[in-house]
Amino acid sequence: MDLLSLFLVCVKVSFLSFGGTAPLPLLHDELGRRRALVPDADFASAIAIGRIAPGPNGLFVLPIGYFVAGVAGALVAAAALWTVAMPVLILLKIHHWLARFAIVDAGVKGIQAGAIGLTLAVAWSIMVATTPTPFHLAIAVATFALAAFTNVDVVLILAGAALLGLGTLLRGHLG
Predict the structure, then answer these.
(1) Of the residues 16, 27, 44, 74, which has the fewest C-beta atoms closer than 10 A?
(2) What pLDDT digit, counting tens, does each position of 36-95 carry?
(3) Does residue 15 register a pLDDT over 60?
(4) Total domains present in the chain
(5) Residues 67 and 140 in one domain
(6) In terms of C-beta density within 10 A (0-12 exposed, 13-18 middle, 19 or more buried), how is residue 154 classed?
(7) What local confidence, expressed as pLDDT, does residue 8 receive?
(8) Cβ(47)–Cβ(60) under 8 Å?
(9) Higher pLDDT, 16 or 139
(10) Across all residues in the chain, what is the average pLDDT?
């Protein structure tokens, strides 16, 4: 594989790896299955090296670059990481500078309000589709109230809602 192709693959994977290992299947498919450049054992080693190394989770790209093209491959993979990270850092700096202007702050608040409205619209459609009885609606309202107005752990809230739902099944309240 030429270094430019490796660079482009690593840019694609780095762009998708903001804080997680979600792009691993993409990388494995691209370099492991399709091109047969990284055997599964080397791929697993690269993931382990990337996970134990200090820094972001996306560092697994560096050892994979090394396995594909040696030191030059690792350097190309590092350049791909920087190619993705640097524009984001620059945009954050620009946003920080622009945030002091009232018009930008107002625009951001409008976008936030719109996102909340869209989220509520989706939540409403899900609630309507999944609450077939008044009891289920009561579970949804109680769950919202607990999550919004208390410090109860969300896992406990969901577990309680699940138990109530199972209780309706066991008592024969579902149709």
Answers:
(1) 44
(2) 888 888 888 888 888 788 777 668 888 999 999 999 999 999 999 889 888 888 988 998
(3) yes
(4) 2
(5) no
(6) exposed
(7) 93
(8) yes
(9) 139
(10) 85
One domain, residues 110 and 89: no
Assess whether pLDDT exceeds 50 at residue 159: yes
Task: Judge if 13 and 83 occupy the same domain.
Answer: yes
Residues 79 and 21 both lie in one domain: yes
Evaluated on CA atoms 79, 80, 81, 85, the torsion sign reads positive
Domain span at residue 64 reads 3-98
| Predicted confidence (pLDDT) at residue 175 exceeds the cutoff of 90 | no
Run of H or E including 109 = helix 102-130
Residue 33: per-residue pLDDT = 84
Residues 60 and 113 in one domain: no
Q: ∠ at Cα 9 (38, 54), nearest 5°?
A: 75
Q: Directed axis angle between helix 134-149 and helix 154-171, to 10°?
A: 170
121 and 106 co-located in one domain: yes
Q: How far apart are CA 170 and CA 150, in angstroms?
A: 29
Q: What is the DSSP string of 25-80?
A: HHHIIIIIIIS--S-HHHHHHHHHHHHHSSS-GGGGHHHHHHHHHHHHHHHHHHHH
Of 98, 118, 140, the residue that ends a domain is 98
Q: Are residues 107 and 91 in the same domain?
A: no
Percentage of the chain beyond pLDDT 70 is 95
